[in-house]
Amino acid sequence: MKKLSARRRHPLAALVVLLFALAATGGLYTAFAPADEAKANQASSSSLAIKEGKELYAVGCASCHGTGGKGTTDGPSLVGVGAAAVDFQVGTGRMPAAQPGAQAPKKKPKYTQAETDQLAAYVASLGPGPSVPTKDQYSPNGADLANGGELFRTNCAQCHNFTGEGGALTEGKYAPDLGGVDEKHIYEAMQTGPQAMPSFPDTLVTAKDKKDIVAYLKTVNSDEAHTPGGYKLGGTGPVSEGLFAWVFGLGAMIATAVWVAARSTKAKKS
């Protein structure tokens, strides 16, 4: 039998194997490295936001809320209030407070949104708390207005009245008018319970229910809102309507009756 001659390896075989190995390595890197790199970039960005927020906090907030957000006699602790509380209070201009008082009013914000985000990142790092909601959470699109109205009348109308036009509370405090308030800030107020307002976490009022309440408020306070009963008298409900009827309606009837009686008496004398 003839001996089988040994097969010679092609001179380019080693080069092909090397190229294949390089291609496989590159493919694996492409598949897995970007995710790790994105996470690293996100962590780095978050750390930078916390650092810059800490610097802003030291200048504008620490005098009242104390070093590390632990609070002082002039301001409450911020540990655990979360980013949503900062976004609401700073984003609406309530903080920093212009002066001590029963309640901090809404005013022009002192910080830009980017600076507010940095402050929120720092305060969020002090302890777990409600995060800033996403647009999908507070956008009225797809919301149930009937459910939102029922929930608002049950949980909120006692202070804000039936259409969110606000009202007086005790000791100089008040429930602010919700007309024209940003949708995100309404949602955050329910999350965090600013000032005299109680908080409504998702265990009490679900995220969907909060979305429905936001949609209801934006609808009843819009320029296109329809009031089939005529002038809404501040939207405070049947008490104001009854008072209006008694004072003006009954008053007009009495005045008319007096006028008719006077005319009749005068006619008889003539």
Question: How are the SSEs ordered, and which strands pair?
Answer:
Blueprint: H1 13-60, H2 62-65, H3 82-91, H4 113-126, H5 135-138, H6 145-155, H7 157-160, E1 167-168, E2 174-175, H8 183-192, H9 207-220, H10 238-269
Antiparallel strand pairs: 1-2
Helix pairs in contact: 1-4, 3-4, 3-8, 6-9, 8-9
Characterization of the model:
It is a single chain. The protein is built from 10 helices and 2 strands; from the N terminus they run H-H-H-H-H-H-H-E-E-H-H-H. The chain is mainly α and 270 residues long. The protein folds into 2 domains: 92 residues, Cytochrome c-like domain (Cytochrome Bc1 Complex, Chain D, domain 2, Orthogonal Bundle), CATH 1.10.760.10; 102 residues, Orthogonal Bundle (Cytochrome Bc1 Complex, Chain D, domain 2), CATH 1.10.760.10. A two-stranded antiparallel sheet has the order 1-2. A hairpin with a 5-residue loop joins strand 1 and strand 2. Helix 8 packs across helix 9. The N terminus is likely disordered. This is Cytochrome bc1 complex cytochrome c subunit. It is an enzyme of class 7 (translocase). The cytochrome bc1 complex is composed of a cytochrome b (QcrB), the Rieske iron-sulfur protein (QcrA) and a diheme cytochrome c (QcrC) subunit. Its main location: membrane.
